[in-house]
Specification:
SEC-C domain-containing protein, 4 domains, 7% strand, SEC_C_motif, single chain, three-stranded antiparallel beta sheet, mainly alpha, 17 helices, 402 residues
Length: 402
């Protein structure tokens, strides 16, 4: 059976793709236009809600977990939300981290509106909770906190949120850092590692609530059936491969390493990364930023489990690689980058770290196991103050257990 598309079918397929792209662009332009309609300053919450669709009001209702209003029409739902949004601010702030708290604090300090903008995804987070509305004011794009929300925010004692905001900031950054290096982690492992890193108890339900609420703001991770994924991870064998490596624990990163990796624009620019960037710039008239982006894309593909051959093909679509010596140079740098990249399939280790030559050094990094000594005569565990099973007559802690 011939599976090749005819010229007519190819043309029809290309036309369909072009039409879909055009439709998507029109929808995006329409949404952008609606985002910046004229807006009143100061803004009453009633006026802000009146400009929303029923679906947008339902999104706010869902995010605020408002019950018993699913059968209401648009006007009724807006009336309920007008009361619920300011009242819910106290609970919402206990879920905030430092970044989101500072957005509200800074706009409030400017009288409830600002011309300094956050990105559309972050705006969507606040808009989806009825906290910030956008529009055009005096010919400029503006972000506006409704008066009722502003008054509620200003009336609260911000000191009572400081501890939860600090904790949430740490939890979110540590989680982002772990998923940057590990790709996917089961929930119980995440909670266990955060307990170990912070030295504090972590309630699983509370942890999940904090992380879930932060996802639409940062868009760096997403939930799985058993834990959380890195946002880059699609349908691939990473989780299954990790499950097969039961004898391999997650790489023991320090708290500071994970907090650093949890920063929004973090890139792990190891020596192999930097050398690859220099190689590309030496052979092509390209900026540092462009070369860095190309290598960063290669690193992402390595984390996803793609082969060096796949990376070379991807690079050939971006750069003209028409020389054997140049091809060999690329393969050398791809191989170095691969061997020194912390991979999701390897639970955060690099291939070089798992080579036989690196095994002793790695064992030194692992936390010491709590060894148990068994007296083979009695089959009982030997305590530190028990007689040593070697027969010396000394206590075990001062003999073989020393």
């Amino acid at each position: 059976m011939n599976k090749r598309l005819s010229a007519k079918d190819q043309k029809a397929l290309l036309n369909a793709v072009a039409k879909a792209r055009e439709t998507q662009q029109k929808m995006a332009a329409k949404a952008e236009g609606k985002r910046w309609l004229e807006i009143e300053v100061p803004l009453a919450l009633e006026g802000g809600l009146a400009g929303l669709t029923k679906n947008e009001l339902t999104e706010i209702r869902t995010n605020l977990a408002v019950k018993g209003v699913s059968s209401m029409n648009k006007e009724q739902l807006a009336g309920v939300l007008e009361q619920q949004i300011p009242a819910s601010l106290h609970e919402l702030l206990h879920k905030f981290d430092e970044t989101r708290f500072q957005v509200l604090k800074q706009i409030a300090a400017r009288g409830g509106y600002t011309y300094s903008l956050i990105d559309n995804e972050q705006l969507a987070y606040f808009h989806g909770r009825g906290l910030i509305f956008s529009g055009k004011h005096k010919g400029k794009h503006a972000l506006v906190i409704p008066q009722e929300v502003l008054q509620s925010f200003q009336s609260l004692d911000h000191k009572i949120f400081s501890e939860s905001i600090r904790r949430n900031t740490e939890w979110i950054k540590l989680t982002h850092g772990m998923l940057f290096y590990y790709g996917h982690v089961r929930l119980h492992d995440l909670v266990s590692m955060i307990k170990q890193l912070t030295g504090l108890e972590v309630e699983m339900d509370e942890y999940v609530s904090i992380i879930q609420d932060s996802i639409p703001f940062y868009r760096k991770i997403r939930p799985s059936s058993s834990g959380f994924f890195n946002e880059l991870m699609g349908i691939n064998p990473v989780v299954q491969e990790q499950e097969f490596r039961l004898d391999l624990s997650f790489y023991p990163f320090t708290k500071s390493q994970l907090l650093q990796a949890g920063e929004p624009d973090f890139v792990d620019r190891n020596p192999s990364h930097r050398a690859f960037v220099d190689f590309i710039r030496k052979n092509y008239r390209i900026s540092q930023e462009e070369a860095d982006f190309i290598v960063e894309d290669c690193t992402d593909n390595i984390r996803l489990g793609h082969s060096p051959g796949y990376l070379l093909k991807e690079l050939q679509q971006q750069l003209e690689i028409d020389d054997l010596l140049l091809t060999q140079g690329f393969m050398g740098h791809i191989s170095e980058l691969n061997n020194n990249t912390r991979q999701w399939l390897l639970k955060g280790y690099t291939p070089n770290e798992l080579s036989p030559a690196s095994a002793p050094a790695l064992l030194m990094q692992q936390p010491p196991a709590k060894a148990e000594v068994i007296d083979f005569a009695t089959r009982n565990k030997v305590g530190r103050n028990d007689p040593c099973p070697c027969g010396s007559g000394k206590k075990h802690k001062k003999c073989c257990g020393a």
